[in-house]
């Protein structure tokens, strides 16, 4: 009986790992066909793109937990029309960037951003824009590298509260079994969000649906789970307090129908940074940078004019 239970547990643990190994890795052919370029960093290659005039003021955009850098397409067009030089890139484990092993904690993402900026010879303060988990990464970087961030813009940012389903919460909190559930069911779970994102992409101004195959690629689900456990689990109230002390101007934009980031996060930010500019988009959910890009651009313009 004990042997039977041992074998059963072994199969339960091994099967999800086999499923993950059978997923298609990001190939050189996929990378070769992609727009943009690749920087060779310590943990692997990072896919990035520049847009806008070479002499323009620089903006760096950091995407969220699951959707790679193409999520910025609509806003990049708006930033370029404003005369900015815009850098977007894929976080490790997403898009066409490498899938390195290791804990995806704040230091992990901070190192990737710092190395990419060094590789691109960005050595002066610019505007940092973060969406969802990318907002948490931007906050962490601004806290640790205040001299490199002239202005901080946060869109539906993580780090001040989030709404997570009981199933996802179980996967986050329970080692081994949670991993197995993520590798087995995560594809379907995030496949639903892929379809929702495709719909948002199609509805966004001047946008078209993008292929989402990289979400089913090898290394994506482990990256998402690790980020949940080691980055999204970090409360950033203290980091925001440090940014306030440093005097970095902050703009935060929220959606009043966001099911992932509650509006209570807006209040928490106000508690420690009364100088922060904050705005709420009516009818906007967590995909606000796609569906409400035409509203975000003028808010950003006003912030950049008024922030001192």
Automatic annotation (TrEMBL):
GO cellular component labels: membrane
Membrane-traversing stretches: none
Residue ranges of every copy of the AB hydrolase-1 domain listed in the record: 59-292
Pfam families: Abhydrolase_1
InterPro entries, per database record: AB_hydrolase_1, AB_hydrolase_fold, AB_hydrolase_sf
Protein name in the entry: AB hydrolase-1 domain-containing protein
